[in-house]
Amino acid sequence: MDEFNKNESQEIFSKKIRAGKRTYFFDVKSTRGKDYFITITESKKSFEDGNFVKHKIFLYKEDFNKFLIALNETVSHIKTDLMPDYNFDEVKSENNYDTNNTSSEVSFEKN
Fold first, then answer.
1. What letter would DSSP give residue 51?
2. Which of 23, 51, 71, 75 is deepest in the core (most CB within 10 A)?
3. pTM of the full predicted structure?
4. Residue 85 domain-assigned?
5. Mean pLDDT of successive 10-residue segments in the chain (111 residues)?
6. Is-contact 40 26, C-beta < 8 A?
7. How many CB atoms lie within 10 A of CB 42?
8. 20-25 CB contacts, 8 Å cutoff, 24+ apart
9. Are 52 and 46 in contact (CB under 8 A)?
10. Inside any domain, residue 29
């Protein structure tokens, strides 16, 4: 069954963000039909058994713009209405943003 799933989609582009005890993966994948989608995965180590617990969201092309608009509005609400005095630019960065670009010819245009 794992072989079947591996053949269903091919990873085109990947970004990894380490955030404390969590790691986020943003992956662009393609289907056999040359369609593209994004998976967003949160991975964190379980204290009970030491295994990694993963939560995954699949984001399809028809929802990209709606997702970006909602995410931007949500972050903007936190920054301007809930935490206006917090300096988000001073958040400690420990080079936690890794890029593994495996060739990306994909571009997403705003309508």
1. P
2. 23
3. 0.69
4. no
5. 54 93 95 93 88 94 97 97 92 54 44 44
6. yes
7. 15
8. 21/45
9. yes
10. yes
